[in-house]
Design brief:
single chain; about 90 residues; alpha+beta; two-stranded antiparallel sheet; 3 helices
Length: about 90
């Protein structure tokens, strides 16, 4: 996938409609500015900013949390959201 192309990758196009309304991304950092400085098109919210954006999907199939590409996989906010969803009964 080349994020600099005019089109979107099919998976990125299908994700938002498939999971319903999107929560705001948590943990926004310098990624938006880095992309802009390289003349890479920036998609406005609620579109996916970059392919390392993280979505926590609950057992119902709905997005319950969303984290920006700047959020590290071990960020306490992400870990907490994952732990909370995994603790819910099946």
């Amino acid at each position: 996938m080349d994020p600099t192309t005019v089109g979107h990758h099919l998976a990125l196009l299908e994700l938002p409609p498939a999971v319903g309304a999107q929560p705001a991304a948590t943990g926004e950092g310098p990624m938006r500015e880095r992309l802009s400085s390289k003349n890479i098109p920036i998609h406005p919210a609620p579109d996916v900013l970059w392919n390392f954006e993280k979505f926590v999907v609950g057992r119902s199939g709905q997005v319950v949390a969303r984290f920006s590409p700047d959020t590290a996989p071990d960020d306490p906010r992400l870990v907490s959201a994952l732990d909370a969803e995994l603790a819910k009964p099946a």
